[in-house]
């Protein structure tokens, strides 16, 4: 069962029509549907690609949060072999909102870390909808430090609405945990590549996105606060989320212009949730190319290129 | 109508444009007690009696930190104005203009270089009065400049911070100040010079989640609200009342997030002592030498 977004209504109608025709044919009724189906399919495809070429920032927000959009585990399954998840921060507990471990990527050892939102109700609860607590960030720090010691590159996949705002999270130093994780990514002597695969929500995202190369899927978003949050704080009106999404410039295209992300990974027409395999394999290629760019560099060069890249952000606007 | 509102305007014109009290009396937010404005100012903006620490402006903070109330201003680099051409209910450009007019400052962070009980230090003050001390490109560049100056001068860096967090009107460029300032913190760390953070009321959001929690020593002023998410956001998320003292300086200390809670009257002494100890400078007043016994 496909979940349609509100703006996909025209496409939903066409696809429903196609399904109807197919059902009719399957039931053995003698109708010549091939031509009709082909015509409708072409129409639907065109409508879809037109829609997706012109998504508004708010529509992109919806796509980025689509429940069927591929999540961390989908990328792991398709791109990484021998994934060996490692748990715990060695201080308090294990946080399933952030998962990480060693794996083989394109034949090479890597450390892969990312937010997991979960794809079923049960999984969403286990992974706390991808909203990490301090333990998640401290686990990320631990893994990054291991990777650095064993000179294994780090890949992170970012997909979170933000860090979890709760009493327990504050009690155990949420702010400090995020700060240390940001710090750890910037301190690495091995190259790191981050991909914003869905939502890049504020501090909870930057904590694992301080990378040599930051890539972003075409319809993902990355922002300092959610459009809803901005609407309620700046407009004092939660219905202004669409306006906030537009004015805050949260799309991959805007962020490339600002020099905040290094590259956009194109999504097939209709978005990653319609074509998970193609999206994931394009992402894999982009990560591979990005990592290859650091092959012959010393630890000091890798570190300083990253530092200079971040320092340069905003200086030429 | 009471006599205060009649006298107020005359006194205001007599005292001049800035530093003029809105009201001659200050109400203690904790006890409700009314205190004479001048008495609070003379007491480093601490309410006598209740010891409530009021917010302290950047200049007052610099004065109360440096020897002889003297320091050199460090110029803060200029940044692109309003790169998002942002507007909410109001244009961001107008908000900035108003904040500048209100405070006389260019942005939220002010920098100074001077001596603290004889030890040269770089001091940064992030002032809540300027758009809630929010972290935008200007504040980020200022913090970076402060840290870089400390590296250059081989001196400790002391940050007094009060901030509601990221400046949303600068969008992602505001978020980027978190890693950018962290790069500068790392460079001071490599130079092996102390970074001391003084968390003041309130410090939350992206500021706490970056340079304000990366100090070698974390000091907090009594009662200061310090956290990642603001109390209202947490209440909305969990739908229950927060425990008493939650996210206050003492709570953070008890949970291992802050080294010392220091009363403002003790701040200068404490900072100076730490700077001396951490940079191996001899004691300020060496203990009186005991005359060696002669045979």
User: Separation of termini of chain A?
Assistant: 45 Å
The whole-angstrom Rg of chain A is 21 Å
The total strand number of chain A stands at 8
Overall mean pLDDT of chain B stands at 90
- CATH homologous superfamily of the largest domain in chain B? 2-enoyl-CoA Hydratase, Chain A, domain 1
Average pLDDT taken over every residue of chain A: 95
Q: Give the helix proportion of chain A (percent range).
A: 40-55%
* Total beta strands of chain B: 9
Major sheet size, sense and barrel closure of chain B:
7 strands, mixed
Give the SSE order of chain A as H and E letters.
Answer: HHHHEEEHHEHHEHEEHHHEHH
Number of domains of chain B: 2
Global shape of chain B: globular
Structural class assignment of chain B? alpha/beta
**Rough outline of chain A:** globular
Oligomer: heterodimer
The share of residues in helices of chain B is: 25-40%
Count helical runs of chain B. 10
The share of residues in extended strands of chain A comes to 15-25%
Low-confidence stretches of chain B: 1-21
How would you characterize this protein structure?
The complex is a heterodimer of chains A (317) and B (295). The mean pLDDT of chain A is 95. In chain A, 49% of the residues are buried. Chain A starts with 8 loop residues before the first helix and ends in a 5-residue tail after the last helix. Chain A has helices at residues 9-26, 34-53, 57-64, 72-79, 121-126, 134-149, 167-171, 174-187, 202-206, 227-235, 241-247, 252-257, 276-292, 299-312, and strands at 80-85, 98-105, 108-115, 154-160, 192-201, 213-217, 221-223, 263-265. The longest helix of chain A has 20 residues, at 34-53. Chain A has 317 residues and is an alpha/beta fold. In chain A, strands 1, 2, 3, 4, 5, 6, 7 and 8 form an 8-stranded mixed beta sheet that branches. In chain A, helix 4 (72-79) packs across helix 13 and helix 6 (134-149) packs parallel to helix 8. Helices cover 48% and strands 16% of the residues of chain A. Chain B is an alpha/beta fold and 295 residues long. Helix content of chain B is 35%, strand content 16%. Chain B contains 10 helices and 9 strands. Chain B has a 7-stranded mixed beta sheet, sandwiched between helices. Chain B has a two-stranded antiparallel sheet with strand order 1-2. In chain B, strand 4 and strand 5 form a beta hairpin. The termini of chain B are far apart. At the A-B interface, helix 7, helix 8, helix 9, helix 10 and helix 14 of A face helix 5, helix 6, helix 7 and helix 8 of B.
């Amino acid at each position: 069962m496909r979940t349609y977004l509100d703006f996909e209504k025209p496409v939903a109608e066409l696809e429903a029509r196609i399904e109807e025709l197919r059902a009719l044919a399957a039931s053995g009724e003698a109708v010549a549907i091939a031509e009709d189906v082909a015509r409708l399919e072409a129409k639907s495809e065109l409508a879809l690609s037109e829609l997706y070429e012109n998504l508004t920032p708010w529509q992109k927000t919806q796509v980025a949060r689509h429940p069927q959009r591929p999540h961390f585990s989908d990328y792991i399954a398709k791109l990484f072999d021998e994934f060996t998840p490692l748990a715990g921060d060695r201080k308090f507990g294990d946080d399933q909102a952030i998962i990480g471990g060693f794996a083989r990527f394109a034949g090479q050892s890597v450390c892969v870390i990312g937010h997991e939102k979960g794809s079923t109700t049960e999984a969403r609860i286990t992974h706390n909808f991808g909203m990490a607590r301090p333990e998640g960030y401290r686990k990320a720090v631990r893994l990054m430090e291991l990777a650095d010691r064993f000179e294994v590159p780090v890949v992170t996949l970012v997909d979170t609405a933000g860090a979890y705002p709760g009493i327990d999270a504050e009690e155990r130093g949420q702010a400090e945990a995020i700060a240390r994780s940001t710090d750890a990514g910037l301190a690495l002597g091995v190259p790191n590549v981050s991909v914003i695969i869905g939502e890049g929500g504020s501090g909870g995202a930057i904590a694992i996105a301080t990378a040599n190369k930051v890539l972003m899927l075409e319809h993902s978003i990355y922002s300092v606060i959610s459009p809803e949050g901005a609407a309620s704080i700046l407009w004092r009106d939660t219905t202004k989320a669409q306006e906030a999404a537009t004015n805050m410039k949260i799309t991959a295209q805007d962020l490339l212009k600002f020099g905040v992300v290094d590259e956009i990974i194109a999504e097939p027409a209709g978005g990653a949730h319609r074509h998970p395999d193609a999206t994931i394999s394009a992402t894999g290629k982009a990560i591979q190319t990005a990592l290859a760019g650091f092959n012959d560099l010393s630890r000091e060069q890798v570190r300083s290129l990253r530092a200079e890249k971040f320092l340069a952000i905003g200086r030429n606007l | 109508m009471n006599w205060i509102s009649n006298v107020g305007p005359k006194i205001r014109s007599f005292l001049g444009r800035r530093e003029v009290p809105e009201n001659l009396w200050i109400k203690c937010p904790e006890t409700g007690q009314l205190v004479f404005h001048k008495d609070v100012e003379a007491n480093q903006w601490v309410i006598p009696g209740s010891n409530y620490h009021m917010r302290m402006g950047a200049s007052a903070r610099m004065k109360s930190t440096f020897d002889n109330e003297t320091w050199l201003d460090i110029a803060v680099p200029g940044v692109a104005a309003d790169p998002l051409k942002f507007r909410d209910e109001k244009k961001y450009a107008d908000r900035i203009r108003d904040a500048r007019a209100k405070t006389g400052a260019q942005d939220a962070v002010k920098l100074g270089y001077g001596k603290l009980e004889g030890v040269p230090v770089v001091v940064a003050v992030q002032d809540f009065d300027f758009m809630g001390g929010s972290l935008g490109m200007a504040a980020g560049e200022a913090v970076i400049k402060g840290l870089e100056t400390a590296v250059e001068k081989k001196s400790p860096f002391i940050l007094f911070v009060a901030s509601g967090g990221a400046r949303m009107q600068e969008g992602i460029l505001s978020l980027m100040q978190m890693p950018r300032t962290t790069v500068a913190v790392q460079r001071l760390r490599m130079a092996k010079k102390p970074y001391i953070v003084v968390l003041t009321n309130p410090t939350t959001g992206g500021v706490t989640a970056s340079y304000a929690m990366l100090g070698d020593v974390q000091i907090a002023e009594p009662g200061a609200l310090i956290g990642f998410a603001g109390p209202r956001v947490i209440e909305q998320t969990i739908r229950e009342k927060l425990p008493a003292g939650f996210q206050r300086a003492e709570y953070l200390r008890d949970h291992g997030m802050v080294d010392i809670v220091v009363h403002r009257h003790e701040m200068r002494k404490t900072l100076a002592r730490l700077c001396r100890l951490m940079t191996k400078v001899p004691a300020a007043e060496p203990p009186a030498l005991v005359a060696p016994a002669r045979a």
